[in-house]
Design goal:
The protein is mainly α and 280 residues long. It contains 12 helices and 2 strands. It is globular, with a radius of gyration of 24 Å.
């Protein structure tokens, strides 16, 4: 199954897309191919099940996943990876999703394949990866690896710098020319599920960074906090104003310029009390 003529399972993090692409390939290579024959090969109850799974209208269970793996002709390692993708999609809690996502990444690492969604997960895994991209794009274009490492000296190790540059390169955000790094404009997209996990981990790392930033001289930083009552109906207004403020900062201050420093600006808003029940 895992040949150059068919989709490589380890390049997928969504089992539905893999099934759909594989069946399309089978159909293009064999005019006699049919969903009915595919279902019969795996012992899948009906051809309609295949369509519903691909369209996201029905989820695979561990039992039905084995039937699809058989019909797809997956080998032992491929079958384990396929079942892990199914487990990830079925996971209900953040902890369970992170556990299965880690398994997915271990499989992919062993295959030496770097699917886009895995790289995007890594992009948000550490605060300094987006910061390195901003540094090269807006402050020091055509920097060498050592120049970038000097800029983050004391905060990010040289090994971490090198790994981050490789991730940014594979994402198409940075380009290496004659041992110098150049930024490219690109937009990251990913499935909402994977993106949600990655961004939560990213914000956790930012909160840890903010704690350490308290030791920076006050003339080089700004910390503030406001506590106020917000009615649920006004929460969308609050979010919109925060978004608008961030966009204004980017437009007014986020222009590329020499002798600048990369600043991390975090804005959080969250409830600290629960909604009270009305007294009878």
């Amino acid at each position: 199954m895992n040949t150059k003529d068919y989709p490589n399972l380890f390049e997928y993090m969504n089992y539905r897309e893999f099934i759909g692409d594989t069946l399309e390939t089978m159909k293009s290579k064999n005019p006699q191919f049919s969903f009915s024959a595919f279902a019969k090969k795996g012992g899948i109850p009906s051809r309609a099940t295949i369509t519903l799974v691909i369209q996201g209208k029905r989820n695979l269970t561990p039992e039905s996943a084995l039937l699809f793996a058989k019909a797809l002709g997956l080998k032992a390692t491929e079958k384990k990876y396929f079942l892990t993708l199914v487990d990830f999609q079925r996971a209900k809690t953040e902890e369970s999703k992170r556990k299965h996502l880690a398994k997915i990444q271990n499989f992919v690492n062993r295959q030496q394949i770097f699917p886009l969604e895995k790289l995007q997960t890594e992009f948000f895994s550490q605060w300094y990866i987006p910061a390195i991209y901003v540094f090269v794009r807006s402050i020091s274009p055509l920097s060498t690896t050592h120049q970038i490492a000097d800029a983050f000296h004391g905060k990010v190790s040289f090994v971490q710098i090198c790994k981050s540059l490789e991730i940014l390169k594979n994402l198409g955000l940075l380009l290496e020319k004659e041992k110098k790094w150049e930024a490219k404009e690109a937009r990251l997209t990913s499935s909402d599920e994977i993106k949600s996990i990655a961004i939560k981990e990213y914000h956790k790392s930012l909160l840890e960074l903010a704690k350490k930033a308290l030791s920076i001289p006050i003339e080089k930083r700004e910390f503030g906090a406001t506590t106020l009552p917000i009615h649920p109906k006004n929460l969308p207004i609050l979010k919109q104003k925060i978004k608008q403020f961030r966009e204004e900062l980017i437009d007014e201050l986020g222009v590329p310029q020499e002798d600048a420093s990369v600043y991390q600006i975090n804005i959080q808003a969250y409830p600290v009390t629960q909604k009270q029940r009305r007294k009878q």
